Amino acid sequence: RACFVAEEGNRLVSADYSQVELRILAHIAGEPVLKEIFERGEDVHTATAEQILGGKPDPGTRSKAKMVNYGIVYGLSAFGLADRLQIEKEEAQQFIDAYLDRFSKVKEFIEQTIERAAEEGHVATLFGRIRRVPELRSRQFQTRSLGERLAVNMIIQGTAADIIKVAMVRARDELRAAGLSTRLVLQIHDELLFEGPEDEVERAGAIVRREMAGAFEMDPPLEVDVGVGENWLEAK
Predict the structure, then answer these.
(1) How far is 2 from 235, CA to CA, in rounded Å?
(2) pLDDT tens, N- to C-terminus, the chain (236 residues)
(3) Closest CA to 73 of 25, 118, 35, 122
(4) Which of 75, 183, 199, 204 could, after both became Cys, cross-link 153 (CB 3.0–4.6 A)?
(5) CA-to-CA distance for 111 and 64, rounded, in angstroms?
């Protein structure tokens, strides 16, 4: 990140969605426990560790909870989670089972998504963008399992990809409408990087935050972290 440096007299503005995939999961699944965590402004991984393990989590259990959180989004199996965390497959399955037991609406969302995708042959993001999943009709177990992961993942990460594209257009249009010369220079996953004159930074940052947060109405709402610096590392 430090290699990306603003031109002399300019600054970089980094605007990054905060845990957008997990917010989308909470919204789509209608999971009240996950929504409450975001509403209280808690660290979602620490709170998840408390929810599925009980007691005060240490850095190790928080790390496991974080992997489970994103593993659900990415469609990670117990085998894949065990490999990532370097634990036994049985322990990984216990983490996943405990998560789905506590966040029961997430479990319902996954099951219903897979069932509907198998019937219809495709899934769609919240914006209506379709991905066909022929793997779900395969006779091979491994291929069907891949299809199940793809179906769930597409809805969540596909929606996140749609949101960042809407945010890019909205932010660009509003910066132009405001007569600013600050411009979008890079998109990195759920982060947008802008470059502009130092005297525009405060105004540009406020516009970008507003337009990104308003790119899609959700419960819990989108949250945007904004940073400024002479290089990408400082801005991040």
Answers:
(1) 9
(2) 457 888 888 999 999 999 999 999 999 999 999 999 999 998 898 888 888 877 677 777 888 888 888 888 777 788 888 888 888 888 888 888 888 898 999 999 999 999 999 999 999 999 999 999 999 999 999 999 999 999 999 999 999 999 999 999 999 999 999 999 999 999 999 999 999 999 999 999 999 999 999 999 999 999 999 999 999 989 98
(3) 25
(4) 75
(5) 23
Structure tokens at 81: 């989670």
Q: Which two tokens stand for residue 28?
A: 């789509």
Cα–Cα distance measured from residue 46 to residue 197, given in angstroms and rounded to the nearest whole number: 39
Extract the tokens encoding 59.
Answer: 């850095």
User: Distance (Å, rounded) from C-alpha 91 to C-alpha 102?
Assistant: 17
Match 């220079």 to its residue by tokens: 185
Residue type, 187: Q
- State phi, psi for 17 to the nearest 5 degrees: -65, 135
My answer on whether omega of the bond before 57 falls inside 30° of 0, hence cis, is no
From the number of C-beta atoms within 10 Å of its C-beta (0-12, 13-18, 19+), residue 119 rates as exposed
DSSP 8-state assignment for residue 63: H
Q: Which two tokens stand for residue 75?
A: 């469609």
Residues 6+ apart with CB under 8 A from 29: 103, 105, 106, 108, 109
Decide: 183 and 6 in contact? Cβ < 8 Å: no
